[in-house]
Amino acid sequence: xxxxxxxxxxxLGPSAKYDTCGPKEGIDQKxxxxxxxxxxxxxxxxxxxxxTNSCIKHCRYCVNQACMNTPRVVLSPDDMARTFMExxxxxxxxxxxxxxxxxxxxxxxxSKILETATIIRQRYHYHGYIHLKIMPGVTDIYLEEALKLSxxxxxxxxxxxxxxxxxxxxxxxxxxxxxxxxxxxNTIRQKYNLKYKRNISQTTQFVVGATRDSDAEILxxxxxxxxxxxxxxIFYSSFSPVSGSPLQDVTASTTKRGHRLYQADFLLxxxxxxxxxxxxxxxxxxxxxxxxxxxxxxSHPELYPIxxxxxxxxxxxxxxxxxxxxxxxxIQRRIKYGKINSHFELxxxxxxxxxxxxxxxxxxxxxxxxxxx
Length: 373
Ligand code: SF4
Hints:
This protein is an alpha/beta fold. The protein folds into 2 domains: 251 residues, Aldolase class I (TIM Barrel); 62 residues. 40% of the residues lie in helices and 13% in strands. The protein is built from 13 helices and 10 strands. The strands form 2 sheets. It has an 8-stranded mixed sheet. The chain has a two-stranded parallel sheet with strand order 9-10. Helix 2 crosses helix 3, helix 3 runs parallel beside helix 4 and helix 4 crosses helix 6. The radius of gyration is 23 Å and the shape is globular. It comes from candidate division CPR3 bacterium GW2011_GWF2_35_18. One of its GO terms (molecular function) is metal ion binding.
């Protein structure tokens, strides 16, 4: 890698850290721009980098906003593509996540991202994972091109509604610029996936806690994005103040809050919960002390205990300590052996009896009070 490229990556790699790849992300300290992200099959290493950290926008939480006094660099599409392929050749990364500040306007920034991805696909014949960031407000032709080149696309809403976005990104328009592009991208993506039998996913991200945003507001938008738009995934980036930015004196959001939002998100995506099932305090926030599934169970005593041997899947999913994989195991065992005989049998299947026992019966037996094991 050229010295000049390495120096730019020392700025462009860390600048990309605000685009999260999930709750359990890490940074490779040796190579700027290399991050670890948790996937369904373990960890993968992504080259997560910005094409440029120059930006005309004034997102008040962002290290790259126009008013920050920070060195600005641009990596050309040729240099970016070559650098990525070098890392792939040395088996140092498994894929690319390419984003950018908005230098000029959204279309110009998007063009550079697309140029890089085109070089990687066409000149270097790379067929692996590419995640492209979509710039808000770009026309359909850019969206179609991005879908042709990528495995995942994302456009960050950053906030749950226009009022909150105005507080943190005063020069972005929530409805007309950001949300509309998310919806257009989603429509084109679904048609594209159907037509070409592809499975390109679409994600978005919220910055949590930079304003007085409530979890209720986030849940409203979460439900819309998952139920109506069928978005693949939402990420929650806990706000952390950047020194020298207009929000430098705002208190950082706790990682616990982000963790609870991820738990509520999982309940909506995998457990059949609706946003109204999620228990909120008077302050419209999730409890930091209690996970949202336990809070639901404790506020609905009429639904428990749930009988392990006869309850349908959607009821089993309401038991604290039992996730979708374990529910499937329970159902398979019921089919194979007729029934589950004891709490001990559940424990052997990997189920946390400590958390589940007070909410279940097994063959009509309720054993929450016993010291079972
Ligand atoms: S558009 Fe906003 S969030 Fe994105 S790089 Fe520019 S200032 Fe940062």
